[in-house]
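Q: What does the assembled structure look like for these inputs?
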Amino acid sequence: MAEYKRSTQIADAPSGYCPGCLHSLATRLISDVLDELGQGDNSLNVISVGCSALNILYWNNDFLSVAHGRAPAAATGIKRTNPERLVFAYQGDGDLAAIGLAEIMSAANRGENFTVIFANNQTYGMTGGQMAPTTLIGQKTTTTVYGRDPQTTGYPMKMCELISTLEAPVYVARFALNSPKGVREAKAGIKKAFQAQLDGKGFTFVELLTNCPTNWHMTPLQTLDYMNMNTIPYFKPGVYKDKTE
Amino acid sequence: MVQINPDLCKNCGYCVKFCPKKVLATGQNRNRRGQFYPVMTDEAGCITCAVCAMMCPEGAIEVTEGGANT
Amino acid sequence: MSEKRFMKGNEAIAEAAVRAGCRFFAGYPITPQNEIPEYLSWRLPEVGGAYVQGESEIASVNMVYGAAAMGTRSMTSSSGPGISLKAEGISYLASAMLPALIVNISRGGPGLGSIQPAQSDYLQATKALGHGGFHAMVFAPNSAQEAVNVVYNAWDYAERDRNPVLVLMDGCLGNIMEEVELPPMKELSDEDLPEWSLTRRNGRDYQGNITPIYTEPILEGINAMAGEMYKAWEEEDVQVETYELDDAEYVVVAYGIASRVAKEAIMELRAEGYKIGMIRPITLFPFPKKTIHDLDYSRVKGIIDIEMTIPAQMREDIELQVAERCPVYEYGRSGGCLLDDEGVYDAIKDILTGGADNG
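A:
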């Protein structure tokens, strides 16, 4: 037996996301965790650029919308001046792993006491499905029409692996949102990260493997299978670093 | 009790796919935005595990203990 | 309590900022402004503020964007190449209607240019600090003391307008040491936090949100409001110093370091009997249009634009006001080569004696 009540952190209306988009599931999960921690009023969502910016019209609590890739920098300014607020940045893969690579790595390296939630769907969704730094080898996008070729575009960036090499971060983990098990673990991971922040422990990073039915040209259900066969074998879910205890 | 809000549904099919007891199915009616939405097909078989609610991207499904499914 | 100190211009700016209530600074090292972050790195923690050395100018200005959204008086500083990188963040500050202070201690350009002082960022400062067609108030002090005064009041303008403010000063003024009188510390409390700030959710029953993106009709309205604000600045906020204009037949227009060098030359030429004066814009935006426009052109025979950059950048703004009622001449040094008394004296005298054309 279990209960579920829709959070009031999100608008009482459909999200702006496409059918089956796991961005909206991730947003819902975050709102559920904030409810459970009683931190809705104290939270400040730093909204980045890309499909994640659809949360501007979906998120009911306080937020600051910022420039492409700069969410960890803005969050630094927020948290350094207002340490009591629960601050989290929500960023996609283009935002975080390409244009914002310096900002994410440097904030993590400084051990800033906020949480970054990284939605990795291997594409630039909002701009129409171009290649992202996380696009898989062979994956077709509007700028890799024959599939991503590592000879000219390199390999998909593994952000959890990169960030976990740094000294300062206290929690680095990756979860896949394409199954009930993954969603349950992701929720626990987000909760752990937020709690670590509330306890003043330092930088926390949660990567969520998501999808893009529209730009992958699949039905929502097909994307879940695609993730099992392609995304998860490359971006392995797991806890990469945990110094929260 | 499983409560489905048709107007939040975008018919992704996740709830139907992941229901462990297979008591949900895509219905024949459309919501305000013209999309089909799931319906409960076997109230007695529902164990209110809330997996459907957990997998719904939109939060269109709420689950409470006891009472009849809608 | 005010007090006198002997300080570098850059340090004076930093201390004045602290006394104005600045409690957050983020910046990235670049010559010739390094004394500002160096000073604030130890000074801000003393007063309960925060200093962050950003990984880049882009990150730094976005840290300021975050802190400013919390209602904290925040600033960043840099020099030309770094200001170019900050252009993104400054534009976002303007769009999100966030107050902040940006300081440009300018050097030779374009590109990496030189690390020596120059006034090559006038056009960037006054016309296009970033994309999207916005303006910020631009103050151009010509002494450490004036820099202190300008910085001390900068957030009052920024918060009034909910818009960033730029202080543009060259590397000379940033690095020469002068006596300054420092104003007392402004003691700000939570009560002074702007009501739009995102600081306090508890007790507030409405959503706090700040965004640099809008739907089209709202953005058009915001653009129009900004236009009205720029007009109001022109009416109310122009700061300009005039010198010996009453009988002047030739008028030098110069700001910042150039105005100090030019003043020496003007005093010398006055002693020789030449009727020459000076207009010194302290605000470059809003530009002192009226002061130049309303000169008595039945007497004034020429305007001389002196800037430490080639070609002169303020000239277009001057020419619009002169409206071909007299010739406009220009003289400058550039690329990090400094204006000197003799060079300016010779150049002006050449013009006064008819030896120069106004090309």
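The beta strands of chain A are 43-47, 63-65, 86-92, 115-120, 123-124, 130-131, 171-176, 204-209, 238-242.
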